[in-house]
């Protein structure tokens, strides 16, 4: 029985995926040559490829650029007050809404900026916030 289980596990986890894994590895190495990524530790490579998962939300707030707003405007103060009360999962959902990803790129929050702008709509009470993920702008009606 032990030999059967060992052979079955070997087939399931090694032999049955050998060809798809070789195809994946060939494509991966084409886009990310070995000589470039061998300098990273596994944890560092994961951050480079997937981005940061642990975030300092107050640091995110410090790197915002405002358009037609000032940091002390009531709308901005209310936004950050509500944002910081959100659970972690909702904050990551906001990040995905803003950027298309719930992670920050590999360089980290120190180099990540986004913009909050006033869309200058005639009746802001009938508008809702929306985001431009390409330019990382949150359009926040007053």
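-> sequence recovered:
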């Amino acid at each position: 029985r032990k030999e059967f289980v060992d052979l079955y596990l070997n087939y399931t986890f090694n032999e049955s995926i050998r060809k798809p894994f070789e195809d994946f590895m060939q494509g991966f190495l084409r886009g990310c040559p070995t000589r470039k990524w061998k300098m990273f530790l596994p944890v560092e490579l994961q951050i480079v490829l997937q981005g940061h998962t642990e975030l300092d939300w107050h640091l995110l707030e410090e790197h915002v650029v405002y358009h037609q707003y000032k940091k002390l405007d009531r709308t901005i103060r209310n936004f950050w007050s509500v944002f910081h009360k959100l659970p972690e999962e909702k904050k990551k959902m906001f990040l995905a809404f803003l950027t298309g990803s719930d992670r920050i790129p590999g360089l980290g929050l120190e180099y990540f900026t986004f913009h909050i702008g006033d869309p200058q709509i005639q009746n802001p009470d009938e508008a809702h916030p929306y985001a431009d993920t390409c330019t990382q702008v949150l359009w926040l009606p007053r």
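The mean pLDDT is 86.
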